[in-house]
């Protein structure tokens, strides 16, 4: 079996702020921007990797969610513990400097982890954890 990650989804409660972060700070390209009423789905991805996309989506759009579930999602997003993504870069220190320079919310500066990787972490405007690992 030969599988590839095509799309992954991150909640975005402020689509414009999330778009600015992912496009202007992280350097991703916008591939699609679709609105429906007050909702918006923005597909972004790393340049040179058209097969991999992230969809920034309204976090509570699922009609099957109860009001309690919607409140729980909002609370988890506010704490920054609802969603995350792990990216990799050839040089995590350079990536950190670039992202920090653009004003991202730093969670962890680059550090050598005891489990063998060097990484750093940020939060995007929706509170999603964004970790960057050094490529082996």
Strand content: 35-45%
Strand count? 8
State the assembly state of the protein chains. Answer: single chain
Rounded Rg: 16 Å
Query: Biggest β-sheet: count, sense, barrel?
Result: 4 strands, mixed
How far apart the termini lie comes to: 24 Å
Ranges with pLDDT <50 over ≥5 residues? none
Mean pLDDT: 95
Question: How does this model look, in words?
Answer:
This protein has 3 helices and 8 strands; from the N terminus they run βαβββαβαβββ. It is α/β, with parallel strands linked by helices. 25% of the residues lie in helices and 38% in strands. The model has no long low-confidence stretch (mean pLDDT 95). The two termini are 24 Å apart. The strands form 2 sheets. A 4-stranded mixed sheet has the order 1-4-3-2, covered by helices on one side. A 4-stranded mixed sheet has the order 5-8-7-6, with helices on one face. It has helices at 15-25, 67-79, 92-101; strands at residues 7-11, 29-36, 39-45, 53-57, 84-89, 105-112, 118-123, 129-134.
Short description:
25% of the residues lie in helices and 38% in strands. The chain contains three helices and eight strands.
Topology, please?
Elements: E1 7-11, H1 15-25, E2 29-36, E3 39-45, E4 53-57, H2 67-79, E5 84-89, H3 92-101, E6 105-112, E7 118-123, E8 129-134
Parallel strand pairs: 1-4, 5-8
Antiparallel strand pairs: 2-3, 3-4, 6-7, 7-8
Task: Tag the structure with descriptive keywords.
136 residues; alpha/beta; four-stranded mixed beta sheet; 3 helices; 8 strands; 38% strand
